[in-house]
Amino acid sequence: MPLSHYACANCGFWQLHFATPPDCPVCTDVRNDLPEDGWHFLPEEEVAATHSGAFREVAPDLWAFTTTPNLGLAGTGWLIIRPEGNIAFEAAPYYSAAMLDQLRALGGIRLLAASHAHGYGALFQLQREFAPELLAIHRDDLQMTKAFQVTAPYDDQLELAPGYTLHHVGGHYAGQAALHDAVHGRLFCGDMFKVDQDADGRSHGISSHKAFHKDIPLTHAELRRYREVIAPLEFDAVLTPFEYAREIGRAQALAALDEGLARAPGVRRLPLESLG
Question: Would you list the DSSP string of the chain?
Answer without folding.
Answer: ---EEEEETTT--EEEESSS-S--HHHHSTTSPPPTT---EEEHHHHHHH-EEEEEEEETTEEEEEEES--TT---EEEE--TT--EEES--S---HHHHHHHHHTT--SEEE-SSGGG-TTHHHHHHHH--SEEEEEGGGGGG-TTS--SEEESSEEEEETTEEEEE--TTSTT-EEEEETTTTEEE-TTS-EEEE-TTS-EEEEE--SBTTTTBPPPHHHHHHHHHHHTT---S-EE-SS-EETT--HHHHHHHHHHHHTSSS---PEEGGGG-
